[in-house]
Write a structure and sequence with these properties.
Blueprint: E1 2-3, E2 9-10, E3 21-25, H1 30-41, E4 45-50, H2 53-65, E5 70-74, H3 80-94, E6 99-102, H4 117-143, E7 148-153, H5 166-186, E8 191-198, H6 204-209, H7 212-222, H8 231-242, E9 253-256, H9 273-277
Parallel strand pairs: 3-4, 3-6, 4-5, 6-7, 7-8, 8-9
Antiparallel strand pairs: 1-2
The chain binds nicotinamide-adenine-dinucleotide.
Protein backbone atom coordinates (compact mmCIF):
# COMPACT_ATOMS: atom_id res chain seq x y z
CA UNK A 1 0.00 0.00 0.00
CA UNK A 2 1.30 3.48 -0.86
CA UNK A 3 0.48 6.70 1.03
CA UNK A 4 0.17 9.55 -1.43
CA UNK A 5 1.30 13.15 -0.75
CA UNK A 6 -2.36 14.13 -0.22
CA UNK A 7 -2.64 11.55 2.56
CA UNK A 8 -4.85 9.13 0.64
CA UNK A 9 -3.95 5.48 0.33
CA UNK A 10 -3.26 4.30 -3.20
CA UNK A 11 -4.53 0.93 -4.35
CA UNK A 12 -1.90 0.90 -7.05
CA UNK A 13 -0.21 -2.15 -5.58
CA UNK A 14 -3.54 -4.01 -5.69
CA UNK A 15 -3.64 -4.67 -1.92
CA UNK A 16 -6.11 -2.08 -0.65
CA UNK A 17 -7.33 -4.27 2.23
CA UNK A 18 -4.09 -5.58 3.75
CA UNK A 19 -4.55 -6.06 7.49
CA UNK A 20 -8.30 -5.38 7.29
CA UNK A 21 -11.32 -7.62 7.80
CA UNK A 22 -14.82 -7.53 6.27
CA UNK A 23 -18.08 -9.30 6.99
CA UNK A 24 -19.91 -10.63 3.93
CA UNK A 25 -23.39 -12.13 4.21
CA UNK A 26 -24.86 -14.20 1.39
CA UNK A 27 -21.24 -15.22 0.84
CA UNK A 28 -21.86 -18.77 -0.37
CA UNK A 29 -22.59 -17.78 -3.94
CA UNK A 30 -23.33 -14.97 -6.37
CA UNK A 31 -22.37 -11.39 -5.57
CA UNK A 32 -21.42 -12.21 -1.96
CA UNK A 33 -19.01 -14.96 -3.01
CA UNK A 34 -17.42 -12.75 -5.68
CA UNK A 35 -17.04 -9.92 -3.15
CA UNK A 36 -15.40 -12.17 -0.57
CA UNK A 37 -12.94 -13.46 -3.18
CA UNK A 38 -12.20 -9.94 -4.46
CA UNK A 39 -11.55 -8.45 -1.02
CA UNK A 40 -9.39 -11.42 -0.02
CA UNK A 41 -7.38 -11.11 -3.25
CA UNK A 42 -6.46 -7.62 -2.03
CA UNK A 43 -5.37 -8.78 1.40
CA UNK A 44 -8.57 -8.82 3.50
CA UNK A 45 -9.57 -11.35 6.12
CA UNK A 46 -13.18 -12.44 5.60
CA UNK A 47 -16.06 -13.20 7.98
CA UNK A 48 -18.43 -15.15 5.73
CA UNK A 49 -22.08 -15.83 6.59
CA UNK A 50 -24.83 -17.65 4.71
CA UNK A 51 -27.67 -20.11 5.25
CA UNK A 52 -25.85 -22.51 2.93
CA UNK A 53 -23.15 -24.34 4.90
CA UNK A 54 -21.95 -26.39 1.93
CA UNK A 55 -21.40 -23.29 -0.18
CA UNK A 56 -19.67 -21.59 2.75
CA UNK A 57 -17.24 -24.52 3.13
CA UNK A 58 -16.35 -24.30 -0.56
CA UNK A 59 -15.80 -20.55 -0.25
CA UNK A 60 -13.66 -20.98 2.88
CA UNK A 61 -11.42 -23.45 1.01
CA UNK A 62 -11.02 -21.02 -1.91
CA UNK A 63 -10.23 -18.14 0.44
CA UNK A 64 -7.71 -20.18 2.42
CA UNK A 65 -6.08 -21.29 -0.84
CA UNK A 66 -5.61 -17.56 -1.55
CA UNK A 67 -3.89 -17.26 1.84
CA UNK A 68 -6.76 -15.34 3.45
CA UNK A 69 -7.82 -15.62 7.07
CA UNK A 70 -11.44 -16.75 7.26
CA UNK A 71 -14.22 -16.98 9.82
CA UNK A 72 -17.11 -18.83 8.14
CA UNK A 73 -20.32 -19.90 9.86
CA UNK A 74 -23.93 -20.44 8.89
CA UNK A 75 -26.21 -17.56 9.83
CA UNK A 76 -29.81 -16.68 9.13
CA UNK A 77 -29.58 -12.90 8.78
CA UNK A 78 -33.26 -12.59 9.77
CA UNK A 79 -32.21 -13.58 13.31
CA UNK A 80 -31.20 -10.44 15.20
CA UNK A 81 -29.55 -12.16 18.18
CA UNK A 82 -27.70 -14.65 15.96
CA UNK A 83 -26.40 -11.77 13.84
CA UNK A 84 -25.09 -9.97 16.94
CA UNK A 85 -23.44 -13.22 18.07
CA UNK A 86 -21.91 -13.75 14.61
CA UNK A 87 -20.34 -10.30 14.67
CA UNK A 88 -19.00 -10.78 18.20
CA UNK A 89 -17.46 -14.14 17.25
CA UNK A 90 -16.04 -12.78 13.98
CA UNK A 91 -14.40 -9.95 15.92
CA UNK A 92 -12.95 -12.43 18.41
CA UNK A 93 -11.68 -14.68 15.63
CA UNK A 94 -10.26 -12.08 13.22
CA UNK A 95 -9.33 -9.42 15.79
CA UNK A 96 -11.07 -6.58 13.97
CA UNK A 97 -13.77 -5.60 11.50
CA UNK A 98 -13.38 -2.73 9.03
CA UNK A 99 -16.71 -3.02 7.29
CA UNK A 100 -19.32 -5.16 5.65
CA UNK A 101 -21.14 -6.01 2.46
CA UNK A 102 -24.52 -7.51 3.42
CA UNK A 103 -25.25 -9.47 0.22
CA UNK A 104 -27.85 -11.96 1.52
CA UNK A 105 -31.02 -11.44 -0.49
CA UNK A 106 -33.97 -13.26 -2.01
CA UNK A 107 -36.61 -12.65 -4.68
CA UNK A 108 -40.15 -14.09 -4.82
CA UNK A 109 -42.09 -12.74 -7.82
CA UNK A 110 -45.90 -12.79 -8.02
CA UNK A 111 -48.66 -10.47 -9.22
CA UNK A 112 -49.52 -8.27 -6.26
CA UNK A 113 -53.15 -9.41 -6.13
CA UNK A 114 -51.88 -12.98 -5.70
CA UNK A 115 -48.84 -12.29 -3.51
CA UNK A 116 -49.03 -14.12 -0.18
CA UNK A 117 -48.24 -12.52 3.17
CA UNK A 118 -45.35 -14.97 3.45
CA UNK A 119 -43.83 -13.87 0.15
CA UNK A 120 -44.16 -10.19 0.97
CA UNK A 121 -42.85 -10.46 4.53
CA UNK A 122 -40.24 -13.04 3.55
CA UNK A 123 -38.56 -10.75 1.03
CA UNK A 124 -38.76 -7.73 3.35
CA UNK A 125 -37.36 -9.91 6.13
CA UNK A 126 -34.17 -10.85 4.30
CA UNK A 127 -33.61 -7.85 2.01
CA UNK A 128 -34.45 -5.08 4.49
CA UNK A 129 -34.82 -6.21 8.10
CA UNK A 130 -31.92 -8.67 7.82
CA UNK A 131 -29.68 -6.02 6.28
CA UNK A 132 -30.68 -3.64 9.08
CA UNK A 133 -29.61 -6.25 11.67
CA UNK A 134 -26.27 -6.71 9.90
CA UNK A 135 -25.64 -2.97 9.54
CA UNK A 136 -26.57 -2.35 13.18
CA UNK A 137 -24.33 -5.10 14.53
CA UNK A 138 -21.35 -4.18 12.32
CA UNK A 139 -21.98 -0.45 12.81
CA UNK A 140 -21.72 -0.82 16.58
CA UNK A 141 -18.33 -2.48 16.15
CA UNK A 142 -17.11 0.19 13.71
CA UNK A 143 -18.37 3.09 15.86
CA UNK A 144 -16.54 1.62 18.84
CA UNK A 145 -13.21 1.94 17.02
CA UNK A 146 -11.99 4.32 14.33
CA UNK A 147 -14.75 3.86 11.75
CA UNK A 148 -15.10 1.84 8.60
CA UNK A 149 -17.39 1.35 5.63
CA UNK A 150 -20.52 -0.58 4.67
CA UNK A 151 -21.84 -1.22 1.16
CA UNK A 152 -25.43 -2.40 0.79
CA UNK A 153 -26.79 -4.12 -2.32
CA UNK A 154 -29.79 -2.24 -3.65
CA UNK A 155 -31.02 -2.72 -7.23
CA UNK A 156 -32.13 -0.74 -10.26
CA UNK A 157 -35.56 -1.84 -9.02
CA UNK A 158 -35.08 0.97 -6.48
CA UNK A 159 -35.26 3.45 -9.39
CA UNK A 160 -38.91 2.68 -10.18
CA UNK A 161 -41.54 0.00 -9.95
CA UNK A 162 -41.57 -3.41 -11.58
CA UNK A 163 -44.66 -5.58 -12.21
CA UNK A 164 -44.72 -8.70 -10.04
CA UNK A 165 -42.11 -7.42 -7.62
CA UNK A 166 -43.99 -5.35 -5.03
CA UNK A 167 -42.07 -7.12 -2.27
CA UNK A 168 -38.65 -6.83 -3.89
CA UNK A 169 -39.12 -3.19 -4.97
CA UNK A 170 -40.36 -2.21 -1.51
CA UNK A 171 -37.37 -3.93 0.08
CA UNK A 172 -34.85 -2.21 -2.19
CA UNK A 173 -36.43 1.26 -1.91
CA UNK A 174 -36.36 0.70 1.85
CA UNK A 175 -32.74 -0.33 1.66
CA UNK A 176 -31.83 2.92 -0.08
CA UNK A 177 -33.59 4.82 2.74
CA UNK A 178 -31.70 2.78 5.31
CA UNK A 179 -28.38 3.40 3.52
CA UNK A 180 -28.86 7.16 3.32
CA UNK A 181 -30.02 7.37 6.93
CA UNK A 182 -26.98 5.47 8.19
CA UNK A 183 -24.74 7.65 6.01
CA UNK A 184 -25.97 10.83 7.70
CA UNK A 185 -26.20 9.27 11.17
CA UNK A 186 -22.76 7.64 11.20
CA UNK A 187 -20.74 9.73 8.72
CA UNK A 188 -19.79 12.22 11.45
CA UNK A 189 -18.34 9.31 13.39
CA UNK A 190 -16.16 7.87 10.64
CA UNK A 191 -18.47 5.22 9.22
CA UNK A 192 -19.33 5.59 5.52
CA UNK A 193 -22.42 3.78 4.21
CA UNK A 194 -23.13 3.47 0.49
CA UNK A 195 -25.02 1.15 -1.82
CA UNK A 196 -24.62 -0.33 -5.26
CA UNK A 197 -27.64 -0.70 -7.52
CA UNK A 198 -27.09 -3.46 -10.07
CA UNK A 199 -29.20 -4.30 -13.07
CA UNK A 200 -29.32 -8.03 -13.86
CA UNK A 201 -26.27 -9.90 -12.57
CA UNK A 202 -25.43 -13.38 -13.80
CA UNK A 203 -26.01 -15.28 -10.54
CA UNK A 204 -28.31 -18.15 -9.54
CA UNK A 205 -30.88 -15.60 -8.33
CA UNK A 206 -31.46 -14.29 -11.82
CA UNK A 207 -30.81 -17.48 -13.78
CA UNK A 208 -33.30 -19.42 -11.63
CA UNK A 209 -35.82 -16.66 -11.10
CA UNK A 210 -36.35 -14.82 -14.40
CA UNK A 211 -38.19 -16.22 -17.42
CA UNK A 212 -35.88 -16.49 -20.45
CA UNK A 213 -38.14 -14.37 -22.67
CA UNK A 214 -38.18 -11.54 -20.09
CA UNK A 215 -34.41 -11.75 -19.81
CA UNK A 216 -33.85 -11.53 -23.57
CA UNK A 217 -36.75 -9.36 -24.69
CA UNK A 218 -36.78 -6.84 -21.88
CA UNK A 219 -33.66 -6.84 -19.72
CA UNK A 220 -30.96 -7.42 -22.31
CA UNK A 221 -32.81 -5.60 -25.04
CA UNK A 222 -33.04 -2.42 -23.02
CA UNK A 223 -29.54 -2.59 -21.58
CA UNK A 224 -27.14 -0.65 -23.82
CA UNK A 225 -24.27 -3.02 -23.01
CA UNK A 226 -26.54 -5.90 -24.08
CA UNK A 227 -25.56 -8.38 -21.39
CA UNK A 228 -25.90 -9.19 -17.72
CA UNK A 229 -23.25 -7.97 -15.30
CA UNK A 230 -20.76 -10.51 -14.00
CA UNK A 231 -20.76 -10.85 -10.19
CA UNK A 232 -17.08 -9.91 -10.30
CA UNK A 233 -18.02 -6.56 -11.88
CA UNK A 234 -20.34 -5.78 -8.99
CA UNK A 235 -17.71 -6.98 -6.52
CA UNK A 236 -15.19 -4.55 -8.05
CA UNK A 237 -17.54 -1.63 -7.36
CA UNK A 238 -18.24 -2.83 -3.82
CA UNK A 239 -14.50 -3.12 -3.20
CA UNK A 240 -13.97 0.44 -4.46
CA UNK A 241 -16.67 1.83 -2.16
CA UNK A 242 -15.25 -0.09 0.82
CA UNK A 243 -11.72 1.12 0.10
CA UNK A 244 -9.99 4.33 1.16
CA UNK A 245 -10.11 5.43 -2.48
CA UNK A 246 -13.79 6.20 -1.81
CA UNK A 247 -12.93 8.12 1.39
CA UNK A 248 -15.25 11.04 0.51
CA UNK A 249 -18.13 8.99 -0.88
CA UNK A 250 -20.94 8.59 1.65
CA UNK A 251 -24.66 7.99 1.10
CA UNK A 252 -24.20 7.29 -2.60
CA UNK A 253 -26.13 4.73 -4.62
CA UNK A 254 -23.84 3.66 -7.46
CA UNK A 255 -25.69 2.23 -10.43
CA UNK A 256 -24.02 -0.74 -12.09
CA UNK A 257 -26.51 -1.17 -14.87
CA UNK A 258 -24.80 -1.25 -18.23
CA UNK A 259 -26.53 2.04 -19.05
CA UNK A 260 -30.09 0.76 -18.45
CA UNK A 261 -31.19 3.86 -16.56
CA UNK A 262 -29.20 6.31 -18.70
CA UNK A 263 -32.28 6.72 -20.88
CA UNK A 264 -35.72 5.20 -21.21
CA UNK A 265 -36.46 5.29 -24.95
CA UNK A 266 -33.98 2.56 -25.82
CA UNK A 267 -34.53 -0.69 -27.66
CA UNK A 268 -31.83 -2.81 -29.26
CA UNK A 269 -33.88 -4.05 -32.21
CA UNK A 270 -36.32 -1.21 -32.37
CA UNK A 271 -36.40 1.99 -34.28
CA UNK A 272 -33.72 4.50 -33.71
CA UNK A 273 -35.15 7.99 -33.13
CA UNK A 274 -32.97 9.61 -35.78
CA UNK A 275 -33.73 7.01 -38.45
CA UNK A 276 -37.46 6.93 -37.75
CA UNK A 277 -37.85 10.65 -37.87
CA UNK A 278 -35.42 11.28 -40.71
CA UNK A 279 -32.91 12.82 -38.37
CA UNK A 280 -32.95 14.94 -35.21
CA UNK A 281 -34.19 17.97 -37.15
CA UNK A 282 -37.10 16.03 -38.58
CA UNK A 283 -38.70 15.38 -35.21
N1 LIG B 1 -28.57 -11.11 -9.38
C1 LIG B 1 -29.12 -9.94 -9.72
O1 LIG B 1 -29.53 -9.73 -10.87
C2 LIG B 1 -29.23 -8.84 -8.70
C3 LIG B 1 -29.53 -7.54 -9.18
C4 LIG B 1 -29.66 -6.50 -8.26
C5 LIG B 1 -29.48 -6.74 -6.91
N2 LIG B 1 -29.19 -8.02 -6.48
C6 LIG B 1 -29.05 -8.21 -5.04
O2 LIG B 1 -27.77 -8.69 -4.75
C7 LIG B 1 -27.81 -9.49 -3.56
C8 LIG B 1 -27.16 -10.83 -3.86
O3 LIG B 1 -27.87 -11.44 -4.91
P1 LIG B 1 -27.28 -12.67 -5.75
O4 LIG B 1 -27.71 -12.47 -7.14
O5 LIG B 1 -25.86 -12.90 -5.41
O6 LIG B 1 -28.21 -13.83 -5.13
P2 LIG B 1 -27.95 -15.39 -4.94
O7 LIG B 1 -29.29 -16.01 -4.81
O8 LIG B 1 -27.05 -15.90 -6.01
O9 LIG B 1 -27.16 -15.46 -3.55
C9 LIG B 1 -27.79 -15.01 -2.37
C10 LIG B 1 -27.17 -15.71 -1.19
O10 LIG B 1 -27.85 -15.22 -0.02
C11 LIG B 1 -28.07 -16.32 0.84
N3 LIG B 1 -29.20 -16.04 1.73
C12 LIG B 1 -30.51 -15.90 1.40
N4 LIG B 1 -31.25 -15.70 2.50
C13 LIG B 1 -30.38 -15.68 3.55
C14 LIG B 1 -30.56 -15.50 4.95
N5 LIG B 1 -31.76 -15.30 5.51
N6 LIG B 1 -29.46 -15.55 5.73
C15 LIG B 1 -28.24 -15.77 5.19
N7 LIG B 1 -28.02 -15.96 3.88
C16 LIG B 1 -29.09 -15.91 3.07
C17 LIG B 1 -28.36 -17.49 -0.08
O11 LIG B 1 -28.16 -18.74 0.57
C18 LIG B 1 -27.36 -17.23 -1.22
O12 LIG B 1 -26.12 -17.88 -0.98
C19 LIG B 1 -29.29 -9.57 -3.18
O13 LIG B 1 -29.58 -8.59 -2.22
C20 LIG B 1 -30.00 -9.23 -4.47
O14 LIG B 1 -31.28 -8.69 -4.24
C21 LIG B 1 -29.05 -9.05 -7.35
Amino acid sequence: MTRLSNGLISGADGMRFSGKAYLITGAARGIGEATALRLASEGAAIAAADLDGVGLDALAHSLQAQGARVFARTLDTRDSAATDAFVADALASLGRLDGAAPCAGIARAAPTEEMSDADFEGVLGVNLTGVFYTCRAVGRALLARDGGAIVNIASITAKGGQPGRANYAASKWGLVGLTKTLAVEWGHRGVRVNAVAPNGVDTPMIRDGIPQDFLNDVMLDRTPLGRLAKPEEVAAAIAFLLSDEAAYINGAVLQIDGGLTAGFLTHRHGADFARKSGGPNGA
